[in-house]
Amino acid sequence: MTTTSPNPTAQDPIAAEAPPLALGAMSFGTTIDEDRAFGLLDAYVAAGGVWIDTADCYSFWTDDSGRGGASELLLGRWLAARPGARERVRIVTKVGCEPLHPGSYPELSEGLAPEVVRRVAAQSLERMGIDHIDLLLAHRDDRATPLGPTVEAFAGLVEQGVVGRWGYSNTALWRVERGAAHARARGLVGPSAIQLRYTYLQPRPFVRDHDHDHRFGWITDEVLDYAASNPGVDLWAYTPLLYGAYDREDRAISDAYTHPGTTRRLEVLHEVARELGRTRGEVVLAWLAGGDPVVRPVVGVSSTAQLEAALSGVRLALPPEARERLDAPW
């Protein structure tokens, strides 16, 4: 078993008391313009929200330049325009997926060489006008770079005080544990967060995320067991609402979830949502945030109504009987 330090989030009273929902800022500054993004950020913080999730590469695929950075730059402008906001929010950002040049992703991206990790961290600090990053994630694995020096680079940033904690996204669990073991053997700060795709519906075995080239971008039962056995490791779930497909007729559920288990799960989800007078998406978020281990949803929204629904979902305490039905075997 991996030995970890006590959960850093639990030691942070602001983060510990916040609703277990991270606001995804991926589209801020590109498909969501500044005025609307500022309004969503203001509403999120006014509702007690704390965690804001971004990355150095967001959103290169929708930016005319083919480069990332718009999201971090917008967050920097919002923080500058909101004195005192920095003390109330916690920033998650990532390194590893920015294209080496426009159009080169996924074949060529910046990767996780130690000098890249340090340079991108400094770049993110400058873009957002902050003096530290609360959580820095390796956005995807980089098998071309030795794992040890990358771990040492992340741990060094924590030791310097410019990063509060670090972790992994879209990385095979054995690689996460190997990174943790390297840190442990050298007395370094190890990873304390894993961010992967997760929702109530479960994909078929061997389905891969071809849209983003994240082969290991899924929370599996093994990942849940790992987090449950390592109390210092947080789980974060992106795409928890399947782009609105639970509640919107114009959004289709991905073929990755096409199997008999999905049919049964959707039936139970619909029943529970109807009985509780909630939307299916709210029940999904409640199921994630109230589970054991807790999985923090990262939700991207484009309207205050969507934000309010997401906050309502994570604050919903599912009756034990409802959770038992939702958790029943397929």
Automatic annotation (TrEMBL):
Mind telling me which PANTHER family this protein's record contains? Answer: NADH-SPECIFIC METHYLGLYOXAL REDUCTASE-RELATED, OXIDOREDUCTASE-RELATED
Q: What is this protein called?
A: Aldo/keto reductase
**Occurrences of domain NADP-dependent oxidoreductase (ranges):** 20-328
The UniProt entry, under InterPro entries, shows: AKR_Detox_Biosynth, NAD(P)_OxRdtase_dom_sf, NADP_OxRdtase_dom
